[in-house]
Design a protein that fits this description.
Layout: H1 3-14, H2 20-41, H3 45-55, E1 62-64, E2 72-74, H4 75-105, H5 107-130, H6 136-142, H7 146-165, H8 175-196
Antiparallel strand pairs: 1-2
């Protein structure tokens, strides 16, 4: 294939706003498929390129990244992100269950665990700011990440239920409240970690 043809493929895929890792993989597939079609079917680059775009139409369709996100990304990118989101949520949920159980059985140990978790989050955040891994504007954007918005919705539901049925009790007495806070902090730590590793989680 000629250089200008490779550039045309690159420009097309860049218009899909793919992350670097996904772009590299899809680009290789495009080049191989177009080359196979040109050689096997004896057709021109234009025809082979069009056929390949049709074959990838579903995967490269631009869709909403998440129910709580306004960003539009390619469907193939969304599938990868949603898988990553599920893993992050499962890890946060399991850890929040453990912390909720610790609070139920021993409040003093809970305070140590929660304090340690918040300290790790703050240190991670300071590291990003000091070494300019993330700007304050980016951190503000992270506050509206779809996973965190889901957690806020969950906390609002918990507060509503508490107000309706347990109005005489303090929020501190409910394990679910502490689990929701832990869930949020754990998610933020993971988001900062992926940001540092330059792994796409809708932070850029």
């Amino acid at each position: 294939m000629e250089k200008n043809q490779l550039i045309e493929i690159e420009k097309y895929l860049k218009s899909k706003n793919l992350s670097s890792s996904v772009f590299a993989e899809v680009y290789d597939h495009f080049v191989m498929q177009i080359s196979d079609l040109m050689n096997g079917n004896k057709i021109s680059f234009t025809e082979a390129f069009l056929q390949t775009k049709i074959n990838w139409q579903s995967e490269l369709e631009m869709v909403k990244a998440d129910l709580f996100s306004f960003k539009r990304i390619a469907k193939i990118e969304k599938n990868i992100l949603q898988y990553r989101f599920r893993k992050m949520m499962i890890l946060s949920f399991v850890f929040s269950l453990i912390v909720g159980a610790v609070f139920y059985f021993n409040e003093d140990i809970y305070l140590v665990v929660q304090g340690t978790l918040i300290t790790i989050h703050l240190l991670f955040l300071m590291y990003h700011f000091i070494f300019r891994k993330m700007s304050f504007f980016e951190y503000r954007k992270m506050s509206f990440h779809p996973l965190l918005l889901r957690n806020i919705l969950l906390m609002l539901i918990i507060l509503t239920v508490n107000t309706m049925f347990f109005t005489t009790k303090n929020l501190w007495d409910f394990s679910f409240h502490h689990m929701a806070v832990t869930f949020s902090v754990t998610l933020q730590i993971q988001l900062l970690y992926f940001r540092n590793k330059k792994i796409n989680v809708l932070l850029t």
